[in-house]
Amino acid sequence: MSTSTEQPADLTAATTLLRFATAGSVDDGKSTLVGRLLHDSKSVLADQLEAVEHASRSRGQEAPDLALLTDGLRAEREQGITIDVAYRYFATARRRFILADTPGHVQYTRNMVTGASTAELAVVLVDARNGVVEQTRRHAAVAALLRVPHVVLAVNKMDLVDYAEPVFATIAEEFTTYATELGVPEITAIPISALAGDNVVEPSANMDWYGGPTVLEHLETVPVSHDLTACHARFPVQYVIRPQTAEHPDYRGYAGQIAAGAFRVGEEVTVLPSGKTSTITAIDALGEAVDIAWAPQSVTIRLADDIDISRGDLIAPAGDAPATSQDVEATVCHVADQPLAVGRRVLLKHTTRTVKAIVKDIPSRLTLDDLSQHPNPGQLVANDIGRVVVRTAEPLALDAYADSRRTGSFLLIDPADGTTLAAGMAGESFATAKAVVSVEDEEGWDF
Q1: Beta strand extents in 195-337 (DSSP E only)
Q2: pTM over the 0.85 mark
Q3: Distance in angstroms (rounded) separating the CA atoms of residues 406 and 429
Q4: Cα angle vertex 433, ends 430, 435, to 5°?
Q5: What are the tens digits of pLDDT across the range 129-146?
Q6: What is the DSSP letter of 66?
């Protein structure tokens, strides 16, 4: 094959970067699609392709099975090794890509939360023979919850349904209706055969009734924005730098990564949760003083006043600081094997701050079939999506997740062993959702 002697595309040649995640039910062909994208974008090294060809021949297959490019992960899972997400990097002449390859089994749905949390696009695979199944709805719901702005519905294995347009149209309409109800802003449906290569990189001669883009063409041209400077400025303090040396006897700096927005020297800021204000006197970046810094730069900020600031505090513009509260209402994806029940004591990690908390209420659990809310389930089990109310021991400065994916997200952690229990998104769940009102009283709380 022509790619057997070619090297991967130069990752520095393209100027823009797209982070995207793939998801699909078991045997929907996700591994084959990922392998096809890597192979046809010339992102497979010669020795990797040779190994795949050899393994395929040993199985009696004439053509290389591109799914073997990712089969190593499945083999590891069969051996009992926990795999969260496999990240793959490749590039074309038009764009660079970071692909979060998430497992397809129901018990690994939780891993899609990790992969999609930073993605600008999600590719959801559907087997054309099976149509939209529960796992498809679950993946669409996770993409909507995580506010992934672009979703691609890849209707795979069209070769097994004779490339029939009505089959594709029916599946595309059902999925689009469902995802639109969840509030997904953009949905692109593409009929493909990952095995044969139809509409993956090259247009299919077997589906001349389809006039849209191929998967790769859409990935190369979908608009993405990494401009976090337009968001509300937020700076979680990670570390306090105070060397107290002869050279720097009075130096006091607050180091961390700017989560969103931009900060300028001379700007008045508020430190949360204390609410105290000061003015930025200096910003140090890479050992040099700068007048302005923006997300996602890692910098050290110095203030005019000696305020009691420690790890976990949040610095924000004085006129645009988030409100602090000890009551957190959010949607969570439960990722642990042990249930999350009302009254459970947890740790809540938000940016660089970790506080003690209690699960006050679980008002509802999402039913994926019809998007209804099952009221007062009492607990959430692995892979459940539900609304929770959490009371924290200390005030937190959370933004709504709809406004900021960085400062509107949090984790619930088991204080006993550090296990992650749930990934949370503050505020409303879906873009079209109605607020769930809790009728529980507040008696009996410890804080």
Answers
A1: 235-236, 239-241, 253-257, 262-264, 268-272, 276-285, 288-290, 292-294, 298-303, 314-317, 325-334
A2: no
A3: 16
A4: 115
A5: 999 998 898 889 889 988
A6: G
SS (H, E, C) the chain: CHHHHCCCCCCCCCCCEEEEEEEECCCCCHHHHHHHHHHHCCCCCHHHHHHHHHHHHHCCCCCCCHHHHCHHHHHHHHCCCCCCCEEEEEECCCCEEEEEECCCCHHHHHHHHHHHCCCCEEEEEEECCCCCCHHHHHHHHHHHHCCCCEEEEEEECHHHHCCCHHHHHHHHHHHHHHHHHHCCCEEEEEECECCCCECCCECCCCCCCCCCCCHHHHHHHCCCCCCHHHCCCEEECCEEECCCCCCCCCCCEEEEECCECEEECCCEEEEECCCEEEEEEEEEECCEEECEEECCCEEEEEECCCCCCCCCCEEEECCCCCCCEEEEEEEEEECCCCCEECCCEEEEEECCEEEEEEEEEEEEEEECCCCEEEECCCEECCCCEEEEEEEEEEEECCCCCCCCCCCCEEEEECCCCCCEEEEEEECCCCCCCCCCCCCCCCCCCCC
Q: Return the bridge partners of 60, or none.
A: none
C-alpha span between 40 and 36 (Å, rounded): 6
Distance CA 310, CA 317 (A): 18
How far is 123 from 139, CA to CA, in rounded Å? 10
Dist CA 112 CA 123 (whole Å): 11
- Give me the helix-helix angle, 134-145 and 165-182, nearest 10°: 40
Q: Are 315 and 254 in contact (CB under 8 A)?
A: yes
350 beta partners:
353
For residue 135, what are its two tokens? 């796992």
Give the β-pairing of 96-101 and 17-24. Answer: parallel
What is the spatial distance between Cα 160 and Cα 137, in angstroms, rounded to a whole number?
Answer: 23
Per DSSP, 214 falls in state -
Which DSSP letter does residue 433 get? P
What's residue 83's pLDDT?
47
Which residues are within 8 A (CB) of 227 and not within 5 positions of it... i.e. 6 or more apart? none
Taking a C-beta distance cutoff of 8 angstroms, is the pair 103, 138 a contact? no
Name residue, tokens 């149209």: 169
pLDDT, tens only, 299-353: 999 999 999 999 999 999 999 999 999 999 999 989 898 999 999 999 999 999 9
For 53-69, the pLDDT digits (tens) are: 556 566 666 666 555 55
Interatomic CA distance for residues 438 and 431, integer angstroms: 20
Nearest residue to 340 (alpha-carbon basis) of 401, 413, 418? 413
